[in-house]
Amino acid sequence: MPARVKETPAPPRPPAVSREVLRPALEFCLDVHAHPELSGAELRTADRFAARLEASGCTVTRGVGGGHGVVGVLRNGEGPTVMIRAELDALPVTERTGLAYASTVPGVMHACGHDLHLAAAGGAVAELARTRSAWRGTVLVVGQPAEETLCGARAMLADGLYERFGTPDAVLAQHTSPAPAGTLAHAADFRTPLLAASTALDVTLYGRGGHAGTPHLTVDPVLAAAATVMRLQSVVSRETSPAEHAVLTVGSIHAGERGNVIPDTAELSLCIRALSDPVVDRMAAAAERVVRAESAASGCVREPDLTVTSRSPALLPDPAATAAVRGAHEALFGPDRVTDCGPLTATEDFAWFGGQGVATVYWMLGVTGVGPWRAARAGGPPVPANHAPEFAPDLRTALPTGITAMASAARRILDGEGNGR
Ligand SMILES: [Zn+2]
Ligand SMILES: [Zn+2]
């Protein structure tokens, strides 16, 4: 999730977080990083996160949303309600960081920093619990499953998240980015979304298998898939205005087992992202037209299957609530460490939590250590970004920054500033 950073800031200075808050947060982060779980299978992570919230005095409900969703409630008298959201899931990536606490689960890695988000959320709640005499209101904490598959937020809302636990005035989330650790970045332009809207499609093309030496007796789905992938590139380059931020990626293609057998089917998975929902809709319709036409052009034996596997709206943070939170961050970290970002073609299902009087605030949390950042700027290897096997946040700086950023943001909302209602 790339964030734009204006200049190299001074070496980060970790904000002060009390030892009683920081130490368990760090231990939790290392433990969760070593034991990542894929989207929808976050049993252990949800359990550990729930335990962290209970240790801070939250009333915790598990299994919200039909999966492993966790909701913690910290009530502290009359006042606003603020919701803190962090994601539970990891990715199907093989870790190559070489860290002492690297993943112990083959092929699964916290390559998007959700372990750090959870640790920071848990730390922020611990900090709010510790200082509860200074504020009034309710803190909701959500451990959301299945963010990477863009399903978890809607499932929790459909399970009555707000009806059961209260509708928040504002929902807060932060996301790791490959900017320098110790920096934060907020949306600066509220005319365009910070994060893109998206949809994802699975496609199956139906050929007729046979011998590699007699292709004329078959319908080759590999060739149909290749033609489809190439033609899909024209959806952005020829059918979408150059002024749009739009991207179409075919991230997965599977067909056949060996070189001398023409298979029966080919499967593609693709995602479409743009900064407005109508553009995503138009691109999805164009992609479907291309898939069906290439299938027909290849003489496929039946119509292709197209399945929409996810849909998420563009994220446009609330201007007033963002200004209030940004003010808190600049006061704590200094304006040089709080930069502008967006629009980004990253995508999230966090946007589902906002709207109808619920303000969303979302910011980027820089996680790159001083060494890799300076090396990259001096022409060395690029900084490993989210979803890369080498993605390795500098916890020493990024974790206390994340805790302080989230706790101070929640305090601003609890103090009644920038609320959506
Ligand atoms: Zn991710
Ligand atoms: Zn993520």
In DSSP terms (H or I, runs of 4 or more residues), the helix count works out at 10
- The overall strand count is 15
Strand content: 25-35%
Number of domains: 2
Question: What bound compounds does this protein have?
Answer: zinc ion
Low-pLDDT segments: 1-6
Order of helices and strands: HHEEEHEHHEEEEHEEEHEHEEEHH
Give the strand order of the largest sheet, numbering strands 1, 2, ... along the chain: 1-2-4-3-5-15-6-13
CATH topology of the largest domain: Aminopeptidase
Measure the end-to-end span: 30 Å
What class would the helix/strand composition place it in? alpha/beta
CATH architecture group name of the largest domain: 3-Layer(aba) Sandwich
User: Can you tell me the CATH class of the largest domain?
Assistant: Alpha Beta
Question: What's the overall geometry?
Answer: elongated
C-alpha Rg (nearest Å): 23 Å
The major β-sheet equals: 8 strands, mixed
CATH-defined superfamily of the largest domain: Zn peptidases
Protein name: Amidohydrolase
Domain Peptidase M20 dimerisation: 201-293
Binding site for Mn(2+): 112, 114, 148, 175, 387
Cofactor: Mn(2+)
